[in-house]
């Protein structure tokens, strides 16, 4: 029947016999579709009122010198919170787009170094004198994928590395490749993560320490975005971390998406 989703599982029963389990997951599938639609629509609908609020806040900011100090503080608070809300809505919309396969962006070959400039731009306002940012990406390295999606993933990892290194330290952004894979990695010398939380980090809104993350202004969706982007690029995320020593987030891309030579890369991947 059309529109029926079945989950099939087989297990070895004894030497020659197999057991086959067939489960009707149509209802689960429909509920998941409803959840995705709801999040996409709600985020979209929240955008318009927020734009109006931000517009009025900007006008108020222009006249704030003539307002009492308590009101100035209130306006600054409202601006900060509306910025946070805007980031949250943008991240929710991006996740919704990533979850619906038909809205994917086109894939092309890109020089891995083309992400470096964009990363520097987003990182520089966050870096303090105690941080150093070291980007090591060979010129000829190329990666096949969607530029904007990969930009979202890579920049989330770099921003996290800085955010969760409050005392500074070195942030190392690196590209390494061999005949089997290409690896984009971001390493920091920051707070690190308790190993028992690592498997949950890519869940939506999962945060190791809510207080710490609220202060750093994250949305709790960054690593969920990274996971979805990598899934679309047949890549895997590896997280190595040691509490109070630092973390390394590595994105492993398969060989057919990676080039390190001057061989023309058109048409598309093998
Ligand atoms: P957030 O917006 O809270 O940063 P993310 O999905 O990007 O959300 O990350 C989820 C959680 O993983 C963070 O709240 C933080 O606790 C932890 N985390 C992510 N990156 C790092 C890092 N480089 N060092 C330490 N903890 C990290």
UniProtKB/TrEMBL annotation:
The keyword Transcription does not apply. Residues 41-257 form the Histidine kinase domain. It is an enzyme of class 2 (transferase). GO terms for molecular function: ATP binding; phosphoprotein phosphatase activity; phosphorelay sensor kinase activity. Its EC number is 2.7.13.3. One of its GO terms (cellular component) is plasma membrane. It is found in: Cell membrane. GO terms for biological process: cellular response to phosphate starvation. It catalyses: ATP + protein L-histidine = ADP + protein N-phospho-L-histidine. Its main location: membrane. Keywords: ATP-binding, Cell membrane, Kinase, Membrane, Nucleotide-binding, Phosphoprotein, Transferase, Transmembrane, Transmembrane helix, Transport, Two-component regulatory system. This is histidine kinase. The chain holds residues 170 to 439 of 451 of the full protein.
């Amino acid at each position: 029947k059309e529109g029926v989703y079945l989950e099939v599982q087989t297990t070895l029963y004894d030497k020659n016999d197999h057991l086959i389990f067939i489960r009707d997951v149509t209802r689960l599938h429909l509920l998941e579709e409803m959840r995705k639609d709801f999040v996409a629509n709600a985020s979209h609908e929240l955008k318009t009122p927020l734009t109006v609020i931000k517009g009025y806040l900007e006008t108020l900011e222009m006249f704030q010198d003539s307002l009492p100090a308590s009101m100035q503080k209130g306006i600054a608070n409202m601006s900060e919170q509306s910025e946070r809300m805007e980031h949250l809505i943008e991240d929710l919309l991006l996740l919704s787009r990533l979850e619906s396969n038909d809205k994917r962006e086109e894939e092309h070959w890109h020089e891995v170094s083309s992400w470096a400039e964009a990363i520097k731009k987003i990182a520089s306002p966050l870096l303090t004198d105690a941080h150093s940012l070291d980007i090591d990406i060979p010129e000829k390295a190329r990666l096949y994928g969607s530029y904007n999606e990969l930009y979202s993933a890579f920049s989330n990892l770099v921003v996290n590395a800085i955010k969760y290194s409050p005392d500074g330290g070195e942030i190392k952004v690196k590209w390494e490749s061999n005949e089997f894979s290409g690896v984009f990695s971001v390493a920091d010398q920051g707070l690190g993560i308790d190993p028992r939380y690592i498997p949950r980090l890519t869940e939506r809104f999962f945060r190791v320490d809510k207080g710490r993350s609220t202060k750093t202004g994250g949305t709790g969706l960054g690593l969920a975005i990274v996971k979805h982007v990598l899934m679309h690029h047949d890549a895997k995320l590896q997280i190595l971390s040691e509490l109070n020593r630092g973390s390394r987030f590595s994105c492993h891309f398969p060989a057919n998406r990676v080039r390190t030579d001057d061989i023309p890369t058109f048409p598309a991947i093998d």
